[in-house]
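Notes to self, F-box domain-containing protein:
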Amino acid sequence: MMAVGESISVSPPGSRNRSFYIPRIKTAATTFLRHGYLSSSSHRRSDVEGHNKVQLACTLPEEVLQHIFISCAQLSVPDWSWVNVSYVCSAWRRVAVNCPDLWRYIDFSHPKWHSITSQRAKTSSLHVISTVTDKNTRLLQRTLQLAHRIQDIHLTSTVQRIHPLLEILAHPNPALESMIVDIHVPSEHSDVDQGYDPPAFPTTGPPLTNLKYMELRNAPFYLLTSRCTSLTHFHLHDLHMTERPTLRYFLFMLEQLGNLQDLTLHRAFPIIVDSGDSKPQVGPISLPRLQTISLIGSVPEITNVLECIILPPSARLLGKIYTLSDFKSTVWKLTNPLSVHSWGAEGGGLPLETLVLTGDQSCGRFVNGLECNPDFRQSLRIRGFRADCGDRGASIDLTIAPEEYDPCDDGLIIALSAIWKALSLTQVHTLALKDLDVVTQKTWTQFLRTLPSLRILDITGKAPSGLVWAMLLNARSHAQGQKRLKKAGGEISEGRRILIPRLNDMYLHNVDCASGGFMVARNAPVNSHCDLDDSRFLDVLLASLVARRSFDVCLRSLSIARCEHVLRRNVDDARAAVKYLVCDFRHVVKDEEVDADCPASYWGGCDVSSIPGLRHYHRLRALVKVDSGLK
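result:
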């Protein structure tokens, strides 16, 4: 035993000699003990527990903590164990141990945790949720093969690591209710052949009567076997071209799913191998219980699937067109399969009553003046609601969102026109527009002719200049037709009939009322973004309402809420044009604050006077001058 005052020398490997003075260490330890910094293990434990009792996270109700723990167990994070959360404090540990449902989520992050969770699960049905790694592949194999009862499987993996598990997944536990196989392919290898070898094992067997949900992401299609006849939800995502089944085989497998309620095909459509025929010789199949079909693909892919499936009248269609590279030759083919369904013009089902159009732009169209922005992308979403939709959402929900760069609006407008033509819109009483400013006056005229029952028009965000110009020019044309009718007699031609004669109410929300419009390009039915119309949106709208009132087609109410650049004279004109006006006067500005040389605004406040090459017009002022000359 060493005497007081001696020192010891400790020389760890690879380090220099260092002396420790024993009395100094004892003095320091005594000081820590005296001030309570060090204590016995029992005292330390009681102090920690006392500290935890005042922490909010440690005093949450047991039901809340159990919900949090189960949410952690449902995460699939590599090299992380959800069991660690049960060791945060004694309160958490107690709640976790007393929650039987928690231990059904087997932890595959380490053999130790796998053993603990498997033992605590006892004879309960298991949840196998994990990211497949080189360390846990054998654990997963053993569990999937030997577990007496597995309720659901959710595996995330790469293509290489999933191969040892494919045979087991093709012959899952008979008690299985849900299976999700999510295969990740790095973006830099997305174009590389990521196919799977044909199965070297049979896929037949007794029906999996409990299996209701299956989701395959870049996984082999053969995991959908003839045993899965009880599926109610089938989701297929990102299937590589080499793995896609033929249309005939795909429909054969789909027809066996008589209980299917939800079908998803996202970039995972079957291929057509019939050569020489524009349409494959495959008869349509019926899915009588289908409630929702979700499709993301090109126009031909979506068209082919809709032509081959007979949907029940109550089925909802969710779709996204992600490319318009071939729209001129194929987009109008989409009209036929859309029109024959219940929400189509020829379907004969319960008609649509509300139509919502939403536009979106990723960024500005131009940079440095009129130079096209290569990052510019825009999309258009069309939603139609029926009276029986309830909480289910839109009966039809289609998005046109081309991923390739296109500085022109041509493809977007033509695709919208094709979809519009296919839908049954004669009973639509509400039209809502949000950030939709690309449709031209000529196209709006065609659209409005199909809405004879429209009573409510709701506009939010970007001002649809083409819409109000269609209403104004139609009102002027109708007035001229009435004058000629009085002189010569006869009927007004279809082109001169008043559009949306039943329109009663109009709502404007967060609209820049000083927004200008665009003149139509000479050789295409799209906007020319170099030819600007300096007529302000609200001025054109009020001019159309005044013209409509002249032949007793008066708007009942107009609401202007949180809009920008509303002038006092606009408020006075609105009072004279409608019966009831609701206006947010906090945003009304004086007339003299408007710059006479630049009355309209463009592109989110961009100073168009500094951009060369722009040609300015003022169509409304020109019409007023024409009317004055005629008088």
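- Residues 429-631 form one domain.
- DSSP finds 18 helices and 27 strands in the chain.
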